[in-house]
Predict the structure.
Amino acid sequence: MYNTKYFDPNRHATWLELFFDLIFVVTIGDVTHILSHTHEGHLDPVQFWKFVLIFIPLWWIWASHTMYANRFDADDRKHRLATLVIMFLLIVVSGLIGKRFLTSFDAIVFCYVGAKYVIAMMYFVSKYRHPESAGLASAIGRVIVAGATLSLAAVLFAPPWQYVMFYVGILFDLLAFIFFLPRHLRTIPVHTEHLIERVGLLTIIILGESVFSMSAGLANINWTAQRMATAATGFVMVSAIWWVYFDSFHLLTERKLTTGHSVLYSHLLVFVGLSVLASLIRHAILDDIVESDFRALAVIGALCFFIGKQYGYFMERPELRGRLVVNTLIAFALCGIAILLPGTSYMLLGLTVAMICYALLSLRYRNVPPAPAPPASDGARF
């Protein structure tokens, strides 16, 4: 493994990884757009579930590639070409999201499975390139092939069993990484700094998508004082989210992870929460959604963001658990009060105040001494 990026003394995300993240966020932006359409002020529940069910396989492609790159990225031609193929498949999926989703589901399945097979191939190639890690690369590669093949079998079924089979393959993949592979993954612990940087960079780009959503909400509409105030509130909210997320980020980099599951998997909730909150800002500016549906989105977005953001700290920094629980409950209470306010603009303002309050509460984490590391990290607990 000594010719991989894993052993670089000052390792950072490569330019290709940044490009990959950008393509992923473009695709996620198309997925989030599903939540932008309302009918007579209502958001169809089917739209939300469609958003979630498309989000999960796309995120799992990103997470699978990130886990590979974290341990085996050599930044050579083979790695670059394979990554570019995966990026192209994500772009194809992006083009199939929308009205053509149901009629193009087989094509989406083929793109997902193709991306997973490419990642499995990358592991198998690493097995021959790095004999000392052959056991780990082989085990992961076999699991990915098995899960992708189960998902591929979805094309043999008619709806709704087609969708069930597709997600059975994804679920198998996820559970295998959690329960079967940790003992293999501990042989080469995750590169902590690189993993934290990757999830942080992607979070920054998704926050940028929130700003884009706010900008799109102001385009081609009549500007009023209320809409400008709502847009300003939305920007303050995005800024507060950035503060909440990154102000204590150093506490994770101080911890040496093993599998990285506690951080990587919990960010599925973070990314879903951020995407929902971005849609929330857009709807508040346009004032095109009924209050009950706005409240439902607000609850989902806040819960996903706070739980996803807190889980990694809760598992990796046990000395903070008491404070984390108290602060999270306070944030939930403030969000609960916010969604009781009349009007979407006032609810957005209340949610923004809740984010600011939590940012102030998180200032107490800035100078927390690290607790002694346990003998086994997150792999055994997640």
About this structure: Confidence is low (pLDDT under 50) at residues 376-382.
